[in-house]
Automatic annotation (TrEMBL):
The keyword Glycoprotein belongs to this UniProt entry's keyword annotation: yes
PANTHER family: TUMOR NECROSIS FACTOR RECEPTOR SUPERFAMILY MEMBER 6
One biological process term in Gene Ontology: activation-induced cell death of T cells
Keywords: Apoptosis, Calmodulin-binding, Cell membrane, Disulfide bond, Glycoprotein, Lipoprotein, Membrane, Palmitate, Receptor, Repeat, Signal, Transmembrane, Transmembrane helix
GO molecular function terms noted in the UniProt entry: calmodulin binding; tumor necrosis factor receptor activity
Gene3D superfamilies: Death Domain, Fas, Tumor Necrosis Factor Receptor, subunit A, domain 2
Name under which the protein is recorded: Tumor necrosis factor receptor superfamily member 6
Signal peptide, first to last residue: 1-22
Pfam family, one: Death
Placement of TNFR-Cys repeats on the sequence: 87-130, 131-168
Topology in membrane: Single-pass type I membrane protein
Amino acid sequence: MKTTTSCAVFTIVFLFVENSFELHHDKASSLKNLIKTNKAEKKVFKRTTCQNESHYESDRFCCRKCEPGFFLKNHCKEEGGSPECQKCEEGKEYMDHPHALSKCLACTRCASSENMEEDQNCTTTQNTKCRCKENFFCNHTPCSSCQSCTECLLGIQQECNSTTDRVCIHIEKRSHVWTVVAVLFMSLLTVFCIGMHVRNARKIREREYEVIKTENPQRAHEEKNTEDEFPAELADIDLHPYLHYIVDHIEDIKRFVRENGLTEIEVQRIIGSYPNHIQEQDYQLMHSWYQKQRKKGPLFTLSNGLRKMNCNRAADTIIEHIKSDINQKRKEKETLEQIHNES
């Protein structure tokens, strides 16, 4: 009897514990499901409220973006609200679109060293707009450096602008061939006359030197030493007016530019632009070389380069021609000033 009663009590206790455990397990599962549902609802809520491109997601809310010309200082304090935005610094910063950045973008500075100048000022809503200086162009975007416009020997077909290089006239594209022949003939005749003038001037100078040498040896010695030195007044002279003359007196232009500054890529690009015109190739090669040497004493560099090629005669002829031209212009200027003073 006691055994039966004990078994009954044990059975009742076991069933009670089992039911309690199942009830606790069901509550725990329900709680986990509820937490998952809440998290999913929160994620869905965030994705749906910040899908608008005019808003951004902060730590707590979806806020409106700052307008162009402003930067974000503090986030909004309510859902869909406006943040605290501060204006960009005029003339130094800009922002050209709605955003949520904590600072504005710096204004671009137009690089004068790259032959660029300012076209439009920088504002709080628009960056600086740059353009090429006069006689320079840039044919790629964005532009970081402008190139000098090509100088044409036979004439201009299309003028240079800020985005397109100058187009030169070639002989086969010109209808009046005889006009070109006449121009070339006159150019050669001019060069010949200048050469004769230089030659005669040199002979006259040599005669004067011989006379001085006989009458005053000390003075002759001093003048000879002065002539042998490179003239200081020619150090930074503009060689543009003399480029044609220089080209006519250098036998191997391509070798000269290769050994004195131009890369092989630059040489081949210029040759490819004028495949059937040797004279135009030589002129453009020398012009490109000069553009690189303008601030480095171009005449001194030219003279040294020619002497390294054992072209001493060409170097002497070019320097003598430029000196003669400068002296002639100086005398003309002095004569005009004298006439003006007398009047």
